[in-house]
Amino acid sequence: MIGKTTLENGILVITEEIPHVHSVSVGIWIKAGSRDERRRENGISHFIEHMLFKGTERRSAHQIAKEIDAVGGVLNAFTSKEYSSFYAKVLAKHLPIALDLLFDLFLNSLFSAEEIEKERQVIVQEINMLEDTPDEYIHDLFSQSFWPRHPLGFPILGRLETISRMNRTKLMDFFHQHYLDAPPIIVAAGNLKHESLLRPVQETLGIIKPRGKKRKTSPPFPHPHILVKNKKLEQVHLLLGTQGPSAIHPQRYAFSLLNTILGGGMSSRLFQEIREKRGLAYSVYSFLSSFMDSGMLGVYVGTGDSTLSRVLQLILREMKKLAGDSLRPKELRAAKEQLKGNLLLSLESMESRMSRLAKNELYFNRFVSTEEIIEGIEKVRAEEICALAHKTFQSDSLSLTVLGPVTEKAIPNGLLAT
Asked: Between 416 and 404, where is the model more confident?
């Protein structure tokens, strides 16, 4: 059962009651992320995420950790391009403890100068760790290259030069403007009644007065080109991508099926062709990254320097085939069943249900039922997917990022124009 209440100050409280489970996942979701940052403050949203766990007026960082551990719970947070969340998962009987902790972090975090200096070093190490993880780092490189000078292209962690300039005043100003002035969404899924969340939210957060800040954004303009970053690695990592759908695109289900068929699993065309048939890679997949007004569809492969050109040719060939072929009924049916299976399996996780409630509200301003999603998937026809592939995989819209022990000479001339 879904419950939804809007408080007088604009704060939304959304719950999904699942009476047969023992746990509750509850979170505070904020419509603020790296997309809301200016270039000189890139990484500030992620920095704030760290600081919310570093002490409040009532609790030290150690006490925060000790209290959630004492009830066997989980307290965590994340920052994305368009939203931030800090959340807890506890046994249902410990929901009041989880709420008290979350509200304390949100309303009373100290942002002490001493803790800021400590956490600055932690974030520097996090950035260094990412750059030492090439299969993750290449996604940041691609975004910065594909959407230059736009906040959606900014790395969520920020850059070393921007992190070095963060101070308490900047953090607090951004926090007040983008977190406290914008009504948060409080969501929970699990063994709870709507009133059991609504009452404490009204008592604690009902007193704040968000100003209802509206995000001022514009969609990014794609900049397709080839970027090669030479780095001493054992493998060559490549990401070939193009413009994808927004989170609310009317053809989002067709795009999801296109992605699934192309490289969304072990039975996908790219996995079978590049890994299983030819042994050219261990990791190969395609992906969708969707935002409120834009998106990205990409293919990642980790391969050898001597096989880079061959792998690129195979990816382009499979894109061309998908754009020109008619899909076999069995292949389309398998892709639909895979998407539906992934959706239904995710419903067994209270964290997934909690996240789904929040994202539905952030992007659709309503709850999107499982039945509606399945119906949308089932309505997609083979002809729609092939037409979408033809439109999406135009050679002049493709962008390539390569990371590893190679130079521009490793990319054959005119490869993306073929």
From this structure: 404
pLDDT band at 418 (very low <50, low <70, confident <90, very high): very low
CA angle 257, 262, 265 (to 5 degrees): 85
Q: Of 213, 205, 198, which Cα lies nearest the Cα of 9?
A: 205
pLDDT for 54-103, tens place per residue?
Answer: 999 999 999 999 999 999 999 999 999 999 999 999 999 999 999 999 99
Q: What is the pLDDT of residue 13?
A: 98
Do 226-417 and 2-205 have the same topology in CATH?
A: yes
Residues 16 and 189: beta-carbon distance below 8 Å = yes
**pLDDT tens digit string along 104-147?**
999 999 999 999 999 999 999 999 999 999 999 999 999 999 99
Contacts with 26 (C-beta within 8 Å, 6 or more apart), sequence order:
87, 88, 89, 90, 95, 98, 99, 102, 186, 187, 188, 190, 197, 354
49 counts as catalytic: yes
**Helix locations, 264-328, DSSP H:** 269-270, 308-324
CA distances from 17 to 1, 5, 67, 357 (A): 5, 14, 25, 12
Return d(Cα 306, Cα 7) in angstroms, integer: 61
Going from N- to C-terminal start, the domains of the chain cover 2-205, 226-417
Whole-angstrom Cα Rg for the chain: 23
Beta strands in 283-416 (DSSP E): 284-290, 295-303, 399-404
DSSP state of 56: B
Burial class (CB in 10 A: 0-12, 13-18, 19+), 106: buried
Report the distance separating Cα 30 and Cα 359, nearest Å. Answer: 11
The dotted CATH code for 226-417 is 3.30.830.10
Mean pLDDT for the chain overall: 95
Among the listed residues 49, 115, 273, 318, the single catalytic one is: 49
- pTM summary value: 0.95
Architecture of domain 2-205: 2-Layer Sandwich (3.30)
Backbone angles phi, psi at 151, to 5 degrees: -60, -30
Contact between 26 and 186 under an 8 Å Cβ cutoff? The reply is yes
